[in-house]
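Worked problem 6 (solution included).
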Amino acid sequence: MAAILAPFFLIPTWGRMQNYSAEHTPDLAQLSQWARTATLKDAVFLFPDADLALYPGIFRVEAMRAVYVDWKAGGQVNFFKELGEEWWSRWQKTMAAPFDPKDVAQYHSLGIDYFGLQAKNQLEGVKPVFENGRFVVYPTAVTEQH
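Solution. The predicted structure is:
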């Protein structure tokens, strides 16, 4: 019996194997803390350059703020048909194509209050309301005019 169970404990520890990359980073914690303390409780966020990354879901939990759509939330579509249809619609409107700054103009009309980008994708000529080494965040109400 021990020989059967041993791989379940040895591979992740001794073999140093991880199923997912380490997403719990100080930069994500800082972003989550800022959102939790500096934005309204019903604020809605989007991470349009996150693609299939897991950090938007971690942000949702740690910041206690809504995320308009993210890849991992799509896993719930197997349980609720209406959720699947809504998730797919939101994904197609905001995430299906690679991030393009021209898309920012539509975010506010979709009910999104803030969008966060990886720092490497920050917008030219627009001052973020939050930034650190990994993330920049912009309010949609201001950036839709640019």
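Discussion: Helices lie at 2-13, 26-38, 55-63, 81-94, 104-107, 140-143.
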